[in-house]
Structure prediction request, 164 residues.
Amino acid sequence: MPPPGVWLAAAGGAATLAAAAWLFVRSSDAPALAPADSHVGAPADKLAVLDGDTLRLGDWVVRLAGITAPPRGSVCRNGEQPVDCGVAAANALAALVRGRAVDCTIKGHDGQGRPVADCVAGPEALSAALVREGWARAEAPALQADERAARAAGRGLWRSGGRS
Prediction:
């Protein structure tokens, strides 16, 4: 009979092989592996707003294409009152998706490997709506006019003194 050390080494090797096989054989839905030009979506009960430009749709974390929303902790001025404009942007996105299914067309990936997508909730294009309401900056040229209009009207980030 082999010594206990041999049994221990054999068991450890078998466990390592089993773990490696599981990692390579199981299906993966890692956000970084989402193919470009595919669709992901979620019903309202499988949807979460992570911040002003990021959603969780089921197991997927998706960043909205063409915009940048302020991060939580960014201070804006609403008149003389300081406001966390990152939280306000997330709340604006939450209002847009509340009770609605969201469908996204993935256009690529960001530097963190998250899918970047054009997303709609019902008929509403989410990136454009956030820029029009003033809660996101336009990165895409097609949204620049909406940002200028939001600034001129003093909506969202641009209300009474804008960002500080």
In short: The mean pLDDT is 81. The helical segments are 4-25, 85-97, 126-132, 144-153. Residues 16 and 52 are 42 Å apart (CA to CA).
